[in-house]
Each structure stands twice: as structure tokens, then as C-alpha cells.
Amino acid sequence: MELLKLIFIGVFCAGWVDAVWDFEFTETEPLDAAIVIKNGSKEFKTLYSHLLPYMTDTESVWTVFGDNGVSVKSLVAVLSYFVLGGKSKTASVQQRISALQASSLYLLLLGIPGSVVNKVFHQILFDTCLNTVSNCWPQSLVKKRKKDTLKSSQADGKRSKPHRKDNDGDEEQEEVHLSPQDLLKIREGVVLLVKSLLRLLLKFPLKDEPQSADNCVQMFAKLTNFEPVIGELTFGAGQDIDAMRTMPELAYYGLWLLCSSNHGDEKSLRRVFHRILYVILMMSKGESDKPSLMMATQAVLAARDQAIGFVSHVVDELKEPALPFLRILLQHISFRMVDKTDYRTHGAQAVAKLLAKMPCGHYASFIKWLFDYSRQSKVAYRMFALDVSMALLEQPEREANEDLDAELVTFLPHRFLVHNMVFGRRSDASPTVRGHALTCLAQCLELPSMNATRSVKELFSTSEFLSHTHVCTHAQTKDTMALLKRRVSDPKTNVRKCALQAMMGLLKHNVIMLSEENLAVLSERTRDPALSVKKKALQCLMDLLAAHPENSLVQKAWLRGVVPAVVDAESSVQEKALECLEQTILSQVKSHGSYSYRDAQQTLTWDLLGLLCDHCQDLGRYFSRAFTVWSKQNKFTAAFINNLISHTEAEHAAGAWLLLSKVASSCPRLDYGKILDAWDNLVRSDIITWLKSFDMPLEVISASVETLCRLGKAETFLNQHCGELVSVCEAYLSGVILNENGAQNLNEDLVVKHLYTLGVASLHCPSKVGKRIVLLVQSVLTSSVEQQSEGSEELAGSQPLSQFKATSMPSSVRAHAVITLGKLCLQHEELTRKYLPAFARELELCSELAVRSNVVVVMCDLCVRYTNMVDRYVPNVSACLRDKDPLIRKQTLTMLTNLLQEEFVKWKGSLFFRFIAVLVDSDPTIASLCEYCLVHLLLKKNPVMFSQHFIECIFHFNSYEKHKTYNKFPQTASEKAKFSLKGAQNKERRFTIYRFLLVHFTDAQRFNITIKISQNILACFVDGELPLDCDGAAVLAETFGILSLKEIKLSALSGAAGAGGDELQEDEQMAMAKAVMQVAQKKVVSQVQKKVFIESMIPIIINLKSMLEQKRSPVLKDLMGYLQLTMQDYRNEVKEFFAADEQLAVELEYNLKMYEKEKEHEMEAQMAHCSLVGDAVSGGTPVSTRTGMQHFDRCSKTGEEGRVLQLMSPDQQTPVPRQWNVQSPLNQKRTRQIHQ
């Protein structure tokens, strides 16, 4: 009582106390001036310590209050005054501490027996005391955490919704600054309040106060991450409250108390788990606001782990009653999980840890639910199901109990998770889910669980010993591999990356065979269009080589993928490839004395170099590029050179000399005296002997001559040694050709080697090549020496070499003779001028494939050296694009592309039209190659070349030559016949070309080409410049067909502008903003196009229609078909557009109405017919609507292959054009007038 007198002096006004109770403790009037606090919080603490024993003593404190005249009602009112005093954000430190201590005193009074009788409990005051913790603890730390959370959400690539600005900005600035000592004092007050609440919960049941119980749970949930905890928390019922020191420990003890039946039935556990849900999800949840994501800091992750441990403890203690709520908790985690990788991973681990607490029956039941959840329409749900499956695969496999339902047994093994949950998402509609499923499949092989690995192997193996109950057939395995390879070439970048990871994992763990076909999938992806895929492919090859360093197929695939990447267009890919080469080859070169075959890295290095010398010689130029880069980085030291030289006389000599050759060619500043000395000792004295023996393969002959020339660059040296080779070849060929029986006893291989050596050597000593040598090579092409006496030494320029006399030489000999003669021409301009006409005629008349192929190569090489001279023969070369042999067509296409890229050849004459005609080549691979060359190589160099030649394509491919400007370049009759696409039989091929060109137009080019078509084609027919004869009608009809193509429409109007393939779905606000921008853009472009259509097209169309009606031309239906398709976009403006031709406007409106009705009727008939046919074929099984609609879509075509929109039923073999204007209103009116 003395303490109360110390704290409260004076007599309380009864009116003030009654007012506080009447306002239900929401606000209080100021106390009288006489009522003050003398010594601050010290008296609160003393009073608290004196009242605390009354919670357990038999003596009643209420009796003491009554005996001393202390009103409980007044005491509660005064305590509420101090509690409300700390509610303001501008409250001082003393006010906050007093509020916390007053709240603790109030909770202590509630815990003393008799508080209910004395009516101490008031729900609003109780809840206010609970909120004192959040009111008194400074909110600046909480708001700072929210800002960090916002930044983290924006860093994930999605633009977050704008947050509402708080109206209390001024208040935040005026908030009292608290020192660390002040914070410690406030924390002591919070601890005292929480301990008081815990003591209260032990004695005071909240079963009848559910709102207060919810507030308690909410407060404890917030305190779980109030501060970090050193060590692990222990959860239990018999803990000493006074011994607890950390706030999370106190909070979880309070949550455990609230789980008991004293504070509610099953609802108590439900409300606790509901609040724990947000801790596990790492979210911050207030009373009414939406949950906000918290940064995944160490403290937040620790709080999450503590929450999982608490839930596990509750389930262990309560057993069966807690399992339904645990299932609900797991379901809520699944549905509320955010679509962020880190949070999904942590959430999946939480689900897996809590599922481990479930018995087999409940576990299997939840897996069944999870399987249904994995097929939800929302992408985030399917992604999270995959993460949960992977987390569950890390746990031991469950064994089925005897009492488990047979239906649930299949959900227990890991096989179900791998086959149904992971691999079952391989063909998901979302590319994100498809890719993640493949990534998870690869991760299954890295798990310690043998059951998961065995389940993956079952998918790709037909061995019956893998599983006694589940065996995949060969067809299923083949389909699975085919699908995986399709995913490697998926349109979406992310899917391709994940498929590469899965492919590498399967190869790494020997799940699928290490075959050339499978390994080529990885090496080919290093040339993927996407940068990230190329890097992923390089990394996969490195990982696979590390797993199988001794496998020669893996080594070859590694070289095929890594070495060409050195010259990639992306600098980062080049750096990655150089890093791989340096790590695997360059850094592993040690001296021969320190070499050991037991060293796997050194053995791998020399194996790779051996492949580069043998099976992968074609990679030499890419490998040289790497050394050029390394030389600039000073990678080649004297020690490195000495190490290589030490291997030149050992078993790895070939690889050592390969590296030395690359070093010498790319880094000329080094001292190569030792390299030359080693070369002199080994090879230099023998190289001429090797060449003269003619025992080496052709490719070695070329390399040997090149090496010999590099050793001695002086002219005398080259003339001496190369001239000697030329003389030897001349003598041998003379003996074969001039000898009467030389051709009969011909050694074909030896003649080819002499011809090849002659050509290679002559390039380095042109002065040693005489006329006799040229005539000998010519004689190989034309026949025997008899030709020399029959005519002059000069060739008739217009005759092909094979036309002088029938030759008796084999085709391979003549083919190499062409190459040799071409090399001779490279050194002598007069020979080029002499033989070019013969080469051109040889292309036209020669029947031998090898000869024609080599002639193309020679003429293209001569074009680089003598561009102006060969320019007139480019049409002869381009004519080979229509050669009967696919090899020559492909070779010509490739070489012409190279010449066009380097600008040795221009787009002159008929070259563009012959090149573009390859798009419809009979060989799909050649057509695909042509598309690649045009789009990725040539169009980038000249972006306007398609639009420049488009109108002329219409005249050229229809063989129409009556226009004064177009299609006027010279062509022979045979060339016209080769490249002709005239006639109805080639119409689809022509439109394939038109569509290809239009697809790669920009919107500006599409807009301009429409105007140019009207001016240069349609207007010419109107003005009479072009006659409307049979050929003219075909051109005019085709023009309307082109104008009707959907590809000529502006992408801004048709909505063709797509988004990036690998980006995740945008949020609602971003999608709405994008849609608004697209609508605005479409509106502006539509107005411009409408204006041009009215001013440019409509006058020409009206005049052209009048002319076609007068001549009764069948092209009229094409014109009307074009108008019908065009006016569908201006359905309500027909009369406005065609005000100058009322009849045309009425007819168009009538046709549009009739077309819409006909479309509806034919759609109904089509669907009915499809259903009937489906019933007949399937024996009564209904055909799905999806199948019928697909068939209907295939039947919707552009009439007469692209001009008029048609509908075709299944029993029609070809589309029948509609008869326009047959029963239009004006025609009906005229008919009635005539009859009258």
C-alpha cells in the first residue's frame, strides 16, 4: 500500500475514472496536476515484485486492496493511462518504459486469483497491452526492413506495384531518437511484459476470448524473429520462465501454451499454425495488410528453421490430433509460395522436413494431393511441386505398412516422384516448367538416393534387370530420347539450357550411350543463337570430359564443340572457350621427363592433340586463332617451348609439332632457334624425299609443300625445290600422256597425286611453269596427244575442254586436272582469260559430277583474284543452283554466299532471283541452308535487298517480260527453262518465296511495298501500259493474291510483335501498360494506313474493277476477294471508302454479309461432318472438339492458293472459288427491270 501511495498521490476523481471505463480504454483525459510519478519506473518494478507472489499465495490481494481503500477500478484506469501514453510515435523513452511496465502490471493482476470476480479483465485493454510491444519498440527498424524487402523484390526482374505513400511522413521525422542504452531498457520492458503474459496463460484460459487469443498468437509470431538466438531452441512444456533469456524462446513457449485446450479446442492449433505459416514463408504479416516478402537474411532463415522445429515439436507431442492441421499448413505453404527461386527452394525444404513427421498413410495421401497440385493451371504451383519432389527425393524412401490402403502404396516410392512428378512435366505448356523439370531430372542423378538414380535409368533403358515390375519398351525409350533431343532445340532459350544439363547428366552417369549421335547434341549447341545456351553447352562439355577423360568419343565431341567457339561472334563465348582450352591443353604441357601415363590430365592433353592431328584436322584454323590470342597475352614462355621440344622425339611427337607450328605462326617475336634446330635434325632433310616418293595422302602433300615454303621464303629456295617437284611431275605426266600405251596402264592414284603436287608446287614457283606443262594438264582433260596434231595449240574459247575429243581418262583424274589448271590460272592472267570460256561451257555440258563440282570451285576462286574478268561468267556459276545433283547445288550456294559477303560478287542481273529460288529446292536441307544464308548472313549486310527486288520477283517468276523496266536482264533459253516458276503448277512455290520475303520485311518496308505495287503494277494495267492478255491477267491475279497475304499486313496491326521467349510472366500492371501502348500504336498506324488506302489504292481499284467488268475478265473475282479481306478491317466504312462507286460499295457490303453467313453455315456443317466421320471410323467413339477445330483450321485457306478466303470440307479435294456478285441487290434490281 505504501508503494501505491508513493506512485499515486491524491484522490482520484470518480468522474475521471468513470470516463476512462466509459470510453473502454480507447482514450483518457489528462490526470490531475497532483497525480505525478515521483521515481519513474523504479516504483513500477518494486510494485511488480511485491504483487508477483500473490499469483501463488493463498492470501488474496483483493482483500488487501479493499481493506486499504484502494479501488481496483481506479487502479486499472490509471494503468491504462500509462499504457495509452506509450502509444504515440513521439512518446519519450520514459513514457514507453512506463507503458510496458504498466501493461506488465495489468497482466500480472489478471493472473492473480480473483481477477475475474473483481472484473479486472477487459478485452480492449488486454489487446492494447499486447500491442504495447509494437507501439513502444521503434518502428524505424521495421520500416527499413520493408524497404530492403522492396528492393529485393525488384531485383528479381519484375516491376513491383507502386506502394501507397504513407500520410505520416512528418510524424516519422519527428519520431524520438533512441540510443542503444534506451533500446536496452525498452527491451527489458518487453521481456517483462512477455513473461507476465506467459504466467497469465498458465493460469488464465482464453477459450472464451478468441479475439484475444488471436492477438496473443500474432504478437508471439512477430517476436519469433525479434532477435537472433545463439544455439538451438528447445521446446517443451516444463520450462522455467525466469530462466529464459531470448525473445524467440519466450515467444515459442507462448505459442506452445496457446496450442493447449485451455485456450480453445482445435481452433487454437489452427490459429497458431496460421501465424507460423508466414514465418516459414519468410513473410511479414500485419493485422490487415497483405503479407510482404522479407529478405532472405541469415536472421530470417534462422527464424524459419526455428518455426519448422516448433511445428515438428507440436506434431511429435500431440500426435494424431495435429496431423490434419499439419496437412492444412503444408497446403497453405504450397498455395502461398511466391514464384522466386530461393524462396521456392526454402519452402520445398520446409515441406519435406514437415512431411517427415507424417506417418506413411498421411504421407502417401499428401503425395497424392501434391500430384493433383502439380497439374494446376498456375505456373508457380507446378514449379513448386517440382521443387518439393526434389526435396523429398533427398529423404529416405518410405516403406509401406501392412495396413496402408493399396491405392496409396504407389505414391510412396521415389519412382513415382521421378516418373510422374518430375519427368511428367517434360512436355508442360510453360517453357519455364519444361526447363525446370529437365533440370530436376539431371539433379536426380546427383542425389545420394540409389532409388532415384534407378528410377531415372528405367526411363532410358530397356534392360529387364533394372526393375522386375516396371520395364520400358524399346519404343518408349526411343520416344523418350527423341523428346529430349527436341527439347535441346526448343524455341525457348531456358528450355534448351535445361535440356543440355539433363543430356549431360544422362551421359555423365552412363544412363544413355556415349555415342557420336548423342554427343553431337552437346557440341552442336555451342553454336546456338542464344549466348547463354552456348555458354551452357561449353560448361556441359567440360563436365562431361572431366567425368570421362579416357573416352575418345567424348574427347572428339569436346574438340568439336570448344575449339570452333574460339571464333564465336560473342566475346564472352570466346573467352570461355579459350579458358577451357588453356585449362585442358595449354597448362598441362610439361617436359617429357616429368610425364607419366598415370597422370590423367597429361594423358588427356596428348590424346586431344593426337585427335587434332588425325581425325579433327579441320579444326586447325580455329585452333590457330586461340594461339593468336594467347600470344598477345604472353602465354608462351621459354620453358613452355622447351617442354614441347622435349616431346618431339617421343611418342607424342605429332601433338608437340602441332603446338610448335601454332606457336611459331602466331608469335613471331620468340626466339625459335631451338625449334628450327629440332626441325633440321628430324624432317628438313627428308621432306623433299617424302614429296618425291608420292606416297603421302593429298592433304599431307599440301601441308608438306607449305611447310617447305615457310622454311625457305627466299625466291631461289622456292624455285629450286618447288621447281624440282614441278619437273618431276612434268616428266611423269609426259610419260603417261605422250606414251602410246600410257593411258592403258594408268595408275589412277599416282596420276592424281602428281597432278595435285604439280598444282600445289606451281603456286610457289610460277616462273618454272611452261607452256608444255599447261598443255599436258589440258591433255588430261581433253584426251591424248593426237589432239595436238589435229589443231592449233590454242583452244577455241567457246568450246568446253571435254568437247575437243572424247576423253579416256577416269573422272577423278579429270577432276583433279581441273583443280590443277585452276591453280595455274591463278598465277597467269592470260591463262585465266583463255580458259574461262571453256570452264563456263564445261559447267553446262559436262556430265561428270566431280568435274562440274571442281569447275565451280575454280571459277569462284578465280573470281576473288580476277573479279572484273570473271564477273561476266557469274550467271554461268549461278546456273548451277539448278544443277541436277544436290551436292553441286549446295556447294554453289555456299560459295556464292561467301563471294556476296566479301562483295566480290554483286546482286546484278538474275543472281538474286536464282538465289531466292533455292528456297523451294526439292532438297529440304538445301532450302534450309538457303534460308540461313539469306537471313543470317546476307540480309544483315544489305537490309533492303528483299524489298528492292520484291516487285521484280512477281514479273520474273511469272516469266513476264512486257514491263518496260522489270525483268529485262539477258538470259539464255536454257537458263530461263531451268529457273522458270511460271504456271499454276508452280504457284504454291512462288507464294512460298513471297511469304518468306514479306516475313522478313520491316513494317516500313511492308507499307512502302504496298504503295509500290499499286503504282508499278496495278496502275500500269489501268493506264494501259501493260496489256490485259493471258499473261497479264496471271500477273494481276497473283498481285491481288500477294496483297491478300497476312504476311503483308503491318505487324503493329496484326499483333505479331512478340515478347522475349525466356522471360517470366509479367505482372498485371506491366501487362496492362504494354497493352495500352500496343492499342495506341495500332490506332495511329491504322489511321495512316487508312489514309493511304483511300488516297492511293481506292481510285486505282475502282478504275481497275470497271475495266475488268468491261472485258469480263476472270481476274475480277481476285480483285473482289482482295477487297473483301481488306474491308473486313473497315467493316463499317465501306460506303465512305467507295463513295465514288456506289455499286461496288453495295456489292462489297452484300459479299461481306453473305461471307459471314456462309462461314457460320459451313463451320456448323464442317463440325457435324467431322463428328460423323469420327464416329464411323472409330466405331462410335466421339471425336474431340479440339480435333475437329484443328481440321477446320486446316481447311481455312486463301482461295486459289492465296487470293480469296475459302472453306473446304473434307470431301472436297480442291478449294472451289466463290462466284462473286451473282445475286447482289443491284444485279437483282437490273434483272427485274429487264424482265419488266
Q: Detail the poorly predicted runs.
A: 33-39, 144-173, 463-471, 783-799, 802-806, 1056-1067, 1170-1231
- % residues in beta strands: under 5%
Record the strand order, biggest sheet: 1-2
For the secondary structure, the number of strands is 4
Which class do the helix and strand fractions yield? mainly alpha
Mean pLDDT: 78
Keywords: Cell cycle, Cell division, DNA condensation, Mitosis, Nucleus, Signal
Signal peptide: 1-19
GO cellular component, one term: condensin complex
Subcellular location: Nucleus
Question: Can you characterise this structure?
Answer:
The protein is mostly helical and 1236 residues long. Among the domains are: 1-138 and 179-204, no CATH class; 210-225 and 232-354; 952-1054 and 1076-1165, no CATH class. 65% of the residues lie in helices and 1% in strands. It has 59 helices and four strands. A hairpin with a 7-residue loop joins strand 1 and strand 2 (292-293). The longest helix has 43 residues, at 1068-1110. The termini are far apart.
Salient structural properties:
single chain; 1236 residues; mainly alpha; two-stranded antiparallel ribbon; two-stranded antiparallel sheet; 59 helices; elongated; Condensin-2 complex subunit D3; signal; DNA condensation; mitosis
